[in-house]
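Researcher: Structure prediction, please.
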Amino acid sequence: MQPGDLLDLDVSGVAHGGVFVARHEGRVVFVPDTLPGERVRVRLTDTRKSSFWRGEVLEVLEAVPERRPHVWAQADVDVAPENRPGGADFGHIISVHQRELKHRVLVDALERIGRLDAASLAAEPVRTVAEILGEGGDDADADADGIRWRTRVSLHVDDAGRVGPYAARSHRVIEVAELPLATAAIERAALALRGGAAGRIDLVQPADGRVRILHRPEQTSPRGRGRSRRPSGSAPEAPRRGAPENETIRERVGEREFRVDAGGFWQVHRHAASTLTRAVTTALTAPDGAPGVDPDAWHLDLYGGVGLFAAALAEIGGPATRVTSVESDARATEHAGENLVEWIGARAETDRVDRWIRRLRAEASPAERERLQRGVVLLDPPRAGAGTDVVADIAALAPRTVVYVACDPVALARDLGAFRDAGYEATSLTPIDLFPNSHHLEAVATLSRGDARG
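Model: Predicted structure follows.
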C-alpha cells in the first residue's frame, strides 16, 4: 500500500508520543486523534518501513465513551488533518482517561525498557496538580478541563507572514482563532500578532502578569517546559512587545522569588514549579516528618537551571546546607547564584553536567566523597534523559539518595534501569499530569543506595 490509501482499522492500544496502535494484516499502524476501542477510517501517510506504518484519522466510525469534543475546536477530528494544530494531542479524551492512558505508557516503558517491576513502582496513579497542591479557587474549572495553564507559548511566522502554531506533525504554520491551553492574557496577545520576519515568536507571562513578546527571526530551540501563576486579584498588564530575551523577570514559588531571563527556562504550567517543589519535598521527608537532607552532607542539583530545586534542598536542610547547582547555561547559573544567595553553603557552577560530574568523580577528596555519600543528588535532565554515562558517574559517588525529576517516561525508564544496574533501587515514583490535554507526563522518582535503604 502507498501513502494516501484508506483503511478502516480497529485501535487496540496507546503508544508513547501521543499516537495509538492499530494493525493491518499483522503490521502495526500508528495513528493520532483516536482512542483504544475505536474503529476509525485512516489515510496512510508513511509506508516506508516494513515493521510499521503511520496514518491520520479521517473519520471515527465507532467511538468510545471516553471521547469528547476536542478542547481546541480546530484540532478536532472533523477538521482536515493538515489543518489541525499540534500541542493538544489528548484534547479529545476526557481528563480522567487521559491520565489512565499516560499511566499505561509509563508502565509499558518501565517494564519493556527499564526491565523494572512496574506493578509495584508505578502503583500510584497519575496525580493532578490540584491533588498535589490541594488547590481549587477561581480557576478550578479550568484546571478540571486542563486549559489555561500555559504561561509560555511559541508561535511561528512563515515566509508569507502567517502567524500561528505548526500543524500537528509538520512545520507548516496555520492560523488559529484560539489557544485554549494558554492563559487568557497570552491568548489575547498571540491572536493580535500580525506578520513580521519569518521565524519564531515566544510569548511569556511571568508572575507579574504582563506578557512579554520575544521575536526570534532565526529558529532556535531553547530547552522546553515552563510555568508560573499570576497573583490572584491582579489584572494582567498590556503585552510588552519586542521584549529583550535577557530581560530579568521574576517567578514565584510560595513566598520565594526566582530571577530568570524572559527567554530562559522556567516551567510552562503556571503551577508546575510549586507542584514539583512540593513533590520533591515530600520525597525527601520521612513519614515521621524528619527531613531527608543532612545539613552536614554535600548535595547536588544537576541540570539546575536558575536554582529551583537547589533552593528546595537548602530549604529542607537549613541555612548552612552545602548545595551545588550545575547548569550549562551561563545566564541561568548567574541567576541561580542570585536566587541562592541566602544560603551560605549554596553555589552555582556553569558547566555541562556530564563533564562536571566526571571531573568530580575523578578529583573529589576523601572528605568530599564522605560528604557526598551522605547527600542527595537531584537531577532534572532534558527530555532525552541523563544517559548511562551520567548515571554511572552519579552512582560511583554513592550518594545516599537520588531524586530524578523526569519529563519523558521512556528516558526515565532507561535511566532507572541503569541506576538499578549500578546498585540503586527506585523506592517511590509519583507521576504528575503537568501537561493536560497533551501526551506529556512528568514524574518524580526517589532512589536509594542498596546499602542505605531502611
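Model: The longest strand covers residues 52-62.
Researcher: Thanks, that helps.
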